[in-house]
Design goal:
10% strand; two-stranded antiparallel ribbon; alpha+beta
Length: 80
């Protein structure tokens, strides 16, 4: 799993209690295949389609979780 770094602004979490949360988005076919391959090989890592967000961007990311993470991040960046 990657350390908590906001997928929108790049802010890095310094503690585990500063508002960073994971959001799981709708997976693309490529992301589904990757995650399945990792699972079949018993490998660990940061799951595709899941990203960290700081407190400033978490709520908007959560609203967009029915899209892919790539689309959602583009939308949020265009709004700020």
């Amino acid at each position: 799993m990657r350390p908590p770094r906001c997928a929108v602004c790049g802010k890095l979490s310094k503690t585990n209690i500063d508002g960073f949360k994971l959001v799981r988005f709708k997976l693309t076919q490529k992301q589904k295949a990757f995650n399945q391959e990792m699972k079949e090989k018993n490998k660990t890592g940061h799951p595709k389609g899941t990203d960290w967000f700081c407190a400033d961007h978490y709520l908007r990311a959560k609203e967009l979780r029915n899209r892919s993470n790539i689309e959602a991040i583009k939308i949020i960046k265009s709004e700020i």
